[in-house]
Each structure stands twice: as C-alpha cells, then as structure tokens.
Design goal:
Structural class: alpha+beta
Bound molecules: adenosine-5'-diphosphate, magnesium ion
Oligomer: single chain
Distance between the termini: 17 Å
Number of helices: 6
Low-confidence stretches: none
Strand order of the largest sheet: 1-4-3-6-7
Number of strands: 9
C-alpha cells in the first residue's frame, strides 16, 4: 500500500495497512493523481488534490481521518460510484473511468462489494432478497441466487433472519445483511464506509472479524 499527494494542501486522510511490504510488483488498485472538486453555486470545495493510492491484492487497508476529510469521497471514486474531477482509477485490468456507464455499472456489479455507512438495505425486501440483489442484477438464475444468498446469510450468522425485512432487524443484523449482500457476488474489491460507525463495540468487533 502507498499513498502520496503533491498537494500544497495537506490531505486530511491517511491510509494505513497492517500488511508488511514488500508489495507485489503490480498493485491491484491504482488510483493516480486524483483530484475531486465539488462546485455548488459560488462555493468550490477541493476535497483532495493529486492523491495517489496503490493497494495490493489481498491487502486490508484502513482510510482514517476526521469527518469531512474525504474518506467517503475516496471510497466512492475507488468503487466507481462517482467520477474524479481529474485522475485515473485502475482496478485489476480495468481503467474504470474509461468505461461507459453500462460497462461501469457491470464492473461495479461484478468486481466491487460496497458497504455503506447506513447500510442502504431496501426496506420492502427481506434479508435474503436484499442479499441476492447483486446476483439478480448480474443475471444469475433466481434459484442459484437464493441458494448463494442464504449461504452468505448463514456465514454472517443470520440464517434465521432470512425472511425478515430490515425494519424487523437490529442495526448490527442490518449491517451483516449489508455485508452478505456486498460479498454475495464474490467481488475482488470490498469497500466498506464506516460499516460499524453506529454499532456498539461488541457488534462492531464481530463485524470486523467477519470482514477479515
Ligand atoms: P468523510 O467521509 O471523510 O466524512 P466526505 O468524503 O463525505 O468526508 O466529504 C468530504 C468533503 O466534501 C466535505 O467537506 C463535504 O462537505 C464535501 N462534499 C461531499 N459531498 C459533496 C457534494 N455532493 N457537494 C458538495 N460538497 C460535498
Ligand atoms: Mg464519510
């Protein structure tokens, strides 16, 4: 893992990784010279400038920094959920912002698992329906999707909550459904945005163990 910035402005985020160097020669994620600027009316917010990050395959990395520092923005760019103002993001063999919208959506569906801070489960669907959604979008058969989603729910300890809707589950259970959904299509890159931010410390610890 490495992170650099040529910006005059100090970046408010740090990327840290317990994985020891030396890294393999070709990193799996290569974000090069990213700048993200938001313009709203007369205001221009430069979230970061000239930010480069490399992450190796199999590496677990934490992005840390105070609220508003740009952590979510960076994760959204790495996952192709938002486009940078300047710069490139390569994930595996994909130069993701060179892809058109349809191919980018397909890339996200196949290669990226994303866990949002507030889970963003679909309230009208059950746990298993939420967890199988990426497979249905990826055109798996209904039957195969159910079998796989149930196995994922079982692996996060929620086998007996499969038919419950999000409103009938605790925050920690919803977070685990979100994890099952993020992993169901076997993505090569899992991005998690403060997945344990609103959980108690014990639930948060078990979530961290599942993430490993
Ligand atoms: P973090 O996740 O580290 O708390 P964010 O990445 O959400 O920070 O936000 C970084 C900065 O970008 C903040 O100053 C925020 O106000 C600003 N920002 C985020 N999204 C938008 C947006 N859609 N329009 C304008 N400014 C935004
Ligand atoms: Mg955030």
């Amino acid at each position: 893992m490495s992170i650099t910035s040529n910006s005059e402005k100090k970046i408010g985020i740090e990327v840290s990784s317990p994985t020891p160097d030396p890294r393999p020669p070709t990193p799996f994620v290569r974000a090069e010279r990213l700048t993200k600027t938001y313009v709203t009316g007369k205001n221009r917010v430069v979230v970061f400038e000239d930010l480069s990050v490399e992450i190796a395959q199999g590496e677990m990395v934490a992005v840390v920094g105070p609220s508003g520092a740009g952590k979510s923005t960076l994760l959204h760019l790495l996952g192709g959920l938002d486009r940078p103002s300047v710069g490139t993001v390569k994930v595996g063999e994909f130069d993701i912002f060179k892809l058109g919208d349809v191919d980018l959506a397909r890339f996200r569906n196949r290669e990226i698992g994303f866990i949002f801070q507030f889970h963003h489960l679909l309230p009208e669907f059950t746990a298993v329906e939420n967890a199988m959604m990426p497979l249905l979008i990826g055109r798996s058969s209904h039957q195969a999707a159910i079998v796989r989603a149930l196995a994922m729910l079982e692996s996060v300890g929620l086998k007996d909550r499969a038919m419950h809707r999000p409103g009938e589950m605790s925050g920690g259970e919803q977070a685990r459904v979100a994890l099952a959904r993020a992993l169901v299509a076997s993505p090569r890159l899992l991005l998690a945005d403060e997945p344990t931010g609103d959980l108690d410390s014990k639930t948060s610890e078990s979530m961290h163990n599942l993430l490993k």
